[in-house]
Amino acid sequence: MPIIAPSLLAADFANLSNAIDIVENSQADWYHLDVMDGVFVPNISFGLPVISSLQKHKKKVFDVHLMIVQPERYIKDFKNVGTDILTVHYEASTHLHRTIGAIKEEGMKAGVALNPHTPVSLLKDTLADIDLVCLMSVNPGFGGQKFIEHTYNKISELKRMAQEVNPNLFIEIDGGVGLGNAKQLVDAGANVLVAGSSVFGAQDPIATVAALKNV
Ligand SMILES: O=C(CO)[C@@H](O)[C@H](O)COP(=O)(O)O
Ligand SMILES: [Co+2]
User: Fold this and answer.
1) How far is the CA of 7 from the centre of ligand 2 (A)?
2) For labelling, which of 4, 44, 78, 210 has a CA lying 20 to 30 Å from the CA of 60?
3) Please, what is the angle between helix 48-55 and helix 16-24, to 10°?
């Protein structure tokens, strides 16, 4: 069964306690928290103070997706607000190997996200040290976008690479994921599905999470 990580970007920010209830009372496994700085991506979402407030109410895992420049500057800060898995973008990380090490030194799992245009082969020399690869299946910055079909090829290639050096790798798909493509993504090798609008935009978010979990 895939890990389901609802993205709070699609939740009602005036009613975040409802979003917490949905994650905690459903078969969701992780909170996916999209942090955007308006520089790496053309949008600004939320940051440390909001995540700190959520921390007091959560029991499940915080999967933080940093869409910011110089993510290495904030590793300790995200640890301090309860982050379990910290994902930085390949494209924003000049010294990726050092950043991965620094995340792990803080006791978090280390993730690397790839934009749709970034080939998975670029992770050849770091894959053994990474806990999670987040394949962006939309251009980062916004929820509710159309899934990019080429992602299936990237999943298969990454799965092949991981089988050799890191068979427990989390292969996370982020963007445009819903009931229409979840099974095909899992069949291709994904084991973590991020779902924003397909969960929080659904009539029954808890039932939608259950359906995604049981594809
Ligand atoms: O990181 C991002 C967008 O940049 C995602 O996590 C979105 O929040 C996913 O939203 P949906 O495509 O599922 O609506
Ligand atoms: Co994300």
Assistant:
1) 7
2) 44
3) 50
Q: What is the Cα–Cα distance from 47 to 3, expressed in whole angstroms?
A: 24
- How far, in Å, is the centroid of ligand 2 from the Cα of 128? 22
What pLDDT shows up at residue 92?
98
Contact 64, 86 (CB under 8 A): yes
What is the full per-residue pLDDT of the chain (215 aa) written as tens digits? 999 999 999 999 999 999 999 999 999 999 999 999 999 999 999 999 999 999 999 999 999 999 999 999 999 999 999 999 999 999 999 999 999 999 999 999 999 999 999 999 999 999 999 999 999 999 999 999 999 999 999 999 999 999 999 999 999 999 999 999 999 999 999 999 999 999 999 999 999 999 999 99
Domains defined for the chain, CATH in brackets: 3-213 (3.20.20.70)
Q: Which of 29, 34, 37, 131 is catalytic?
A: 34
Most informative mutation of 194, 198, 199 for ligand 1 (most atoms within 8 A of CB): 194
User: Would residue 34 show up in a list of annotated catalytic residues for this protein?
Assistant: yes
Binding site, by residue number, is: 7, 32, 34, 65, 141-144, 174-176, 196-197
What is the Cα–Cα distance from 163 to 195, expressed in whole angstroms? Answer: 25
What is the pTM assigned to this prediction?
Answer: 0.98
